[in-house]
Specification:
It is a single chain. With 226 residues, this protein is mainly alpha-helical. The protein is built from 10 helices and 2 strands. A two-stranded antiparallel sheet has the order 1-2. Helix 2 packs across helix 3 and helix 3 packs parallel to helix 10. It is globular, with a radius of gyration of 24 Å. The termini are far apart.
């Protein structure tokens, strides 16, 4: 108490707000300043899950609507659901856990390396060795975890069976059938891609990866989505 209503309004306006008067009731709408950079830095896990889910949704939609020229009424939303779920659970949650939390333990110096200038990175032999090790570890993860999980997810959503064992059997069969082509694509795309992703500041690691992953997921939707 103590101040007049006019003084209260001036204080709100000084803080970037707007006031509306109506009888004795006053409603104050305060301006909310939002910075995506701050959000990504302060809430990296939530940011990654949202990005991964939305990115997979959009990439599959582009593949069906733009690349395959399906009208919107004929878009396969079940197929789109596969990519959304896979994006949220594997790319959003699991990938954050292992590329940030696990990598921090296995490569304790990686955060220091990512904060350096490009010139300093190129002369940091220890950091470069750790960078190559991270790339090799991630390529192995993609080859032996990412692909099997993707095919099992796809089999589960597209199956009429509710037995996870049936999903696993179908998914792993498709994984082995396409393994040679998938491994080739993995190395040629994510070898160079990981070198970039694992060199940027840590809070940008997965957001940067999702930029390349959008193109990857669009391609994947086209060749493995049907």
């Amino acid at each position: 108490g103590g101040g007049s209503p006019a003084e209260g309004e001036s204080k709100l306006e000084a803080h970037g707000g707007a006031t509306f008067g109506g009888g004795s009731a006053r409603v104050a709408i305060m301006r909310a300043d939002f910075s995506y950079a701050d959000f990504a830095k302060n809430r990296p896990f939530v940011n990654n899950v949202l990005l991964a889910t939305l990115k997979n949704f959009a990439a599959d939609l582009v593949a069906q609507w733009v690349v395959q020229r399906k009208p919107l009424r004929k878009v396969d939303w079940r197929r789109n659901l596969v990519f959304c779920l896979f994006g949220a659970i594997y790319l959003g949650m699991f990938q954050y856990w292992y590329q940030i939390n696990v990598f921090k333990r296995v490569f304790p110096d990686m955060e220091r390396f990512t904060k350096q200038s490009l010139r300093a990175k190129l002369t940091d032999a220890t950091g470069l060795r750790a960078l190559l090790a991270q790339v090799m570890m991630d390529l192995s993860m993609v080859a032996f975890v990412y692909w099997p999980v993707f095919y099992v997810f796809k089999a589960g959503v597209g199956s009429s069976s509710w037995k996870p064992t049936d999903w696993a059997a179908t998914g792993l069969q498709n994984y082995w059938r396409n393994q040679r082509k998938d491994m080739y694509d993995t190395v040629r795309v994510w070898g160079p891609g990981d070198l970039i992703c694992f060199s940027v500041p840590l809070h940008l690691r997965l957001p940067v990866r999702h930029v390349g992953s959008f193109c990857w997921t669009t391609y994947l939707s086209g060749v493995r989505g049907a």
